[in-house]
Amino acid sequence: MKNYQEWYDKTKSSLLRHPQLLQLMRVFNRMMTVLMPLAYLTLLGTSLMSKNLGNDFYAYILVPALGFVLLTLVRKWINQPRPYETWGIVPLLDKDSSGNSMPSRHVFSATIISMACFHASLPVGLILLVLSALLGLVRVLGGVHYPKDVLVGYACGLIWGILFFIF
């Protein structure tokens, strides 16, 4: 991205002029690291207690786990630097790791959990998919991922979920 530095500087200064929005963005980013595991554990718990224990419960464990491992391997192979490593920016979200920016594992994880929940409950799944997309936006605005990182992470989660939960 040729003008990333300029774009991020404008975005960051806009967010810094609205401290409530910046705080909301940071709280949302942290909240998602609690909400998605809670949604996932709730899904596993309700699946475990249902009469149709067999297929769904094991699929809800194996599909996200296998996707997570495969995505992690691809990410390590690509090993793309993060925006704050390549450009002279200070991210708005706390992050100090290097490389492994693409695809976003946070967004993939949120999306595959959303797809599993979508399989169990259409309304809950749709809400979680919207929240996963918002997480991607927050990760980009926060300076820890490029837009393509979160788009690929989201797409991978959708495709993986469609392959295993919809078909």
UniProtKB/TrEMBL annotation:
Transmembrane segments: 27-45, 57-74, 107-138, 150-166
Transmembrane helix recorded as keyword: yes
Protein name: Phosphatase PAP2 family protein
Gene3D superfamilies named in the record: Phosphatidic acid phosphatase type 2/haloperoxidase (1.20.144.10)
Domain spans labelled Phosphatidic acid phosphatase type 2/haloperoxidase: 57-165
Keyword Transmembrane recorded: yes
SUPFAM superfamilies in UniProt: Acid phosphatase/Vanadium-dependent haloperoxidase
Assigned keywords, A-Z: Membrane, Transmembrane, Transmembrane helix
Top-level taxonomic group: Bacteria
Coiled coil: none
